[in-house]
Amino acid sequence: MKMYRTLLSILPLLLLAGCANHGPFRADTQFVDGIVLLDGEPVAHAIVQFVPSGDEGELATGLTDENGRFNLTSLYGNRGRGALRGTYKVLVSKDQSDWVIDPRTGEGHTVATPLLPAIYLDEATTPFEVTIQRGRNRVSLELQSR
């Protein structure tokens, strides 16, 4: 019985050790940063998504700061920093949320209004495609309002 308990107590450690070099959280992510501009002006608080356009890569996201700058993070990789190598379609979105109360029922709900052109919200229409390579990757996304 004691041997059985010992085996059960070390089994999880053996499994973790086996996954340490091959698991998804050790993937080789690359640092990705950049800037989002709309008509030459920085876009603050926009969501940037890198969506894999092929078999390589995993979804990576970032949020722009007050100066339109972002750093990507992903589920996999080196503690979530960066993106895996591969080719990505890049989506950029920013919404304004308003709380609206229905005067007939008195019930409220949130209404989100997109603040950027719809072309940047869809993989099929976005003009941005980026290939992430080994090393540091700097990306400039220059959006147009028209």
Low-confidence stretches are: 2-9, 11-25
Helix proportion: 10-25%
Which range does the strand content fall in? Answer: 35-45%
> What is the CATH homology-level superfamily?
Immunoglobulins
Give the mean pLDDT: 84
Helix/strand order, N-terminal first: HEEEEEEEEEEEEE
Structural class: mainly beta
Q: What is the chains' assembly state? A: single chain
What is the overall number of helices?
1
Provide the number of structural domains: 1
Give a concise summary:
Helices cover 12% and strands 42% of the residues. With 146 residues, the protein is mainly beta.
Explain how this protein is built.
Helix content is 12%, strand content 42%. The chain has 146 residues and is mostly beta strands. The chain has one domain (25-143): Immunoglobulin-like, CATH 2.60.40. A five-stranded antiparallel beta sheet has the order 7-5-4-9-12, with no helix packed on it. Strands 2, 3, 6 and 13 form a four-stranded mixed beta sheet that branches. It has a two-stranded antiparallel sheet with strand order 1-8. β2 (32-38) and β3 (41-42) form a beta hairpin. The radius of gyration is 21 Å and the shape is elongated. Residues 2-9 and 11-25 have low confidence and may be disordered.
